[in-house]
Amino acid sequence: MTPKTVVAIFEDDPVDLFLYEKIFERLADKMTCIYVRTLEEQSLLSGEVEFDMAIIDIHFWGNNVGLSILSKLRNTARKDFLAIAITPLLQEGDLELIMSAGFDLCVEKPVIFQQATNGPVGFPGI
C-alpha cells in the first residue's frame, strides 16, 4: 500500500480553511492534511511532524509572515518537502521575492481546485 501524502496547510482565514477542508476531504484516501491556523500551532509543528508538502498563505497572520514560516520549516524539517505559496494578489516583484524565499510554486487566489484535485504536476501521491 502506498503511504499517504502528508500536507501541512498554513491558513488563518476561516473561509479559505473551509474550502481547503472540503476540497481535500475528497482525497482522504491519498492524503492526510494538517491544518495550521495560528502562529502558536505553527511553532508546535516545527520539526515534530514529517510532511511531504506545505501550502502556505504568504500573508498568514500578517505581512509576508509566510516567508519566514517557510524558512523555519526548511531549517527544522527532517526531510525535503514541496513548498507552495498562496497569495491573493501578486504585485510587481512579489513572485521573485516568493521564489527566492525557497518556494517551489506560487499560486494566486482564487485557486482553481478542480484542476488541483485532478493531480497537477508536482503534487506527490495524487
Report on the structure:
The structure is a single chain. With 126 residues, this protein is of the alpha/beta class. It is built from five helices and five strands; from the N terminus they run βαβαβαβαβα. The chain has helices spanning 14-25, 39-45, 65-76, 94-100, 113-117, and strands spanning 5-10, 31-36, 53-57, 82-87, 105-108. The protein starts with a strand and ends in a 9-residue tail after the last helix.
Topology pattern, helix = H, strand = E: EHEHEHEHEH
Please state how the strands of the largest beta sheet are arranged side by side.
2-1-3-4-5
Rg over alpha carbons:
14 Å
User: What CATH first level would be assigned?
Assistant: Alpha Beta
Name of the CATH homologous superfamily: Response regulator
CATH architecture: 3-Layer(aba) Sandwich
Number of domains: 1
Specify the helix fraction band.
Answer: 25-40%
Mean pLDDT: 82
Give the class from helix and strand content and strand pairing.
alpha/beta
Shape: globular
First and last CA, distance: 14 Å
Overall strand count:
5
CATH topology: Rossmann fold
DSSP summary: helix tally: 5
Taken as a percent bin, the fraction of beta residues is: 15-25%
> Main beta sheet: strand number and arrangement?
5 strands, parallel
